[in-house]
Amino acid sequence: MQTQCVVIGIGNPYLQDDRAGVVVVERLEQEGIPCRTEVVFTVGFEVMDKIRGCDQAIIVDACMLGNEPGSILEVGVDDIFTTHALVNSHAVTLGTTLKTGYVCFPEEMPADIRILLIEVKEIKEFTQQMSSEVEAAVDVVVERIKGMVAAREAGPPSRTSGATAWEQ
């Protein structure tokens, strides 16, 4: 029986705002979050391998969807295929990866996958310093994930859909 939770941060740890997902995971690890954490550098099949066998997966990635820098969007797997703006982002590769997992390993994929996207300001500089907008969004996402993991204890997971934007 699947009982594990995993938080996956996606990004390049050396590329300005693209490192947001990696930093979220690092901060959660420092705070001792009671679930497994993983960092991956691409949205390929490695993501699918990291979430198989879990009942809840939370995936954090940077995005460029044309929103205000530091905007946070929470989407479900289905939203990646039905929201026009997400189809044009690199998140479509993540969606394809997850959909492939559900087709190939339906019994091993999480019932609850949350995808948190942080709108970047700058991703061209090789630096470990994020923009202030993205830094603030990372703080919000860390707190949100801590709440998601705590809520996991309160009831059974369910697959979610419907994009949600947050105000900081």
Automatic annotation (TrEMBL):
Gene3D superfamilies: HybD-like
UniProt keyword terms in alphabetical order: Aspartyl protease, Hydrolase, Protease
Domain of life: Bacteria
An annotated Gene Ontology molecular function: aspartic-type endopeptidase activity
GO BP annotations, alphabetical order: protein processing
SUPFAM superfamilies: HybD-like (SSF53163)
Any Pfam family matching the protein: HycI
Recorded family membership: Belongs to the peptidase A31 family.
Database matches in PANTHER family: HYDROGENASE 1 MATURATION PROTEASE (PTHR30302), HYDROGENASE 2 MATURATION PROTEASE (PTHR30302:SF1)
Annotated protein name in UniProt: Hydrogenase maturation protease
